[in-house]
């Protein structure tokens, strides 16, 4: 009698490889182990990450802060270049630097990686970048999820997202209610585009200008792809250092919406912030996008960070200490503007002058 052949459907025939997923988990464990804190309980592999909340007893009234984000279409650049170990830095930066805006110390993160097909080594490289970013941010990576979506994503396509939790003392929360007339606005330089505006950048540079990722760009001193994949600067520990050493009234994380729109989120209705463009020169990548797509300045400024990744609003008497602390930590920072009464100004933030040559 001939042996019967099972022709029934299976998870594998539907495109999901459980064994590849298990292999990815084994490969990523070494990196996750590096991104920890003393409060983390247990290791990778459980259904939930555990964090010892008794560590918060030192707070009188601890407020938990939470944030979630992704890195947008920058993942397309990573995919096309075949470089997967930096995109995690972007993810961590997008999440933890939202947490620190209110003065919160980032405690832990979880990630979600969605792929068309699990390539274990590739997934492990993505997690490696996330873990390294968590180390730079001072937080732990306590868990995550890798999901395989055949039929929805191509075999080489992927997306990443993450969520983070931080803590801040209730009477130390930063924000608009602390800002006063006369405060100084300190800008901290970005490392490039960070993780915003890539839909515009890709449309302009690839679809309209026809540039290749391996094109050597003299102004960059490297290829276009290397410039576009530059990881997002992570400011959380720098911002926390400021709050420990001098008075800070507010932070603003400059992401989608640009400098003016994001700073406006922490400026109270009665006040107005003026930012002087002549105090800095944006990196060449911003000029290239503007020229290649004939993008108007207003469109650039409401889409890209234009060279400023984080802003601190401090009283005038804190300026010197703040700039010294940031310089000692290797952060390029400068006084970019000031806070005045709203008066006849209808907008919360105005950009004036032209960028330095």
TrEMBL record:
Chemical reaction(s) catalysed: 2-formamido-N(1)-(5-O-phospho-beta-D-ribosyl)acetamidine + ATP = 5-amino-1-(5-phospho-beta-D-ribosyl)imidazole + ADP + phosphate + H(+)
Residue ranges annotated for the PurM-like C-terminal domain, each copy included: 180-346
GO molecular function: phosphoribosylformylglycinamidine cyclo-ligase activity
Pathway: Purine metabolism; IMP biosynthesis via de novo pathway; 5-amino-1-(5-phospho-D-ribosyl)imidazole from N(2)-formyl-N(1)-(5-phospho-D-ribosyl)glycinamide: step 2/2
Pfam families tied to this protein: AIRS, AIRS_C
Compartmental location: Cytoplasm
Matching InterPro entries: PurM-like_C_dom (IPR010918), PurM-like_C_sf (IPR036676), PurM-like_N (IPR016188), PurM-like_N_sf (IPR036921), PurM_cligase (IPR004733)
Primary location: cytoplasm
Keyword Lipid biosynthesis recorded: no
EC number: 6.3.3.1
Keywords assigned: ATP-binding, Cytoplasm, Ligase, Nucleotide-binding, Purine biosynthesis
Enzyme class: ligase
Residue span, PurM-like N-terminal domain: 60-168
HAMAP family reported for this sequence: AIRS
Entry-linked PANTHER family: TRIFUNCTIONAL PURINE BIOSYNTHETIC PROTEIN ADENOSINE-3, TRIFUNCTIONAL PURINE BIOSYNTHETIC PROTEIN ADENOSINE-3-RELATED
Similarity comment: Belongs to the AIR synthase family.
Name used for this protein in its record: Phosphoribosylformylglycinamidine cyclo-ligase
Organism this protein belongs to: Streptomyces pathocidini
Gene field: purM
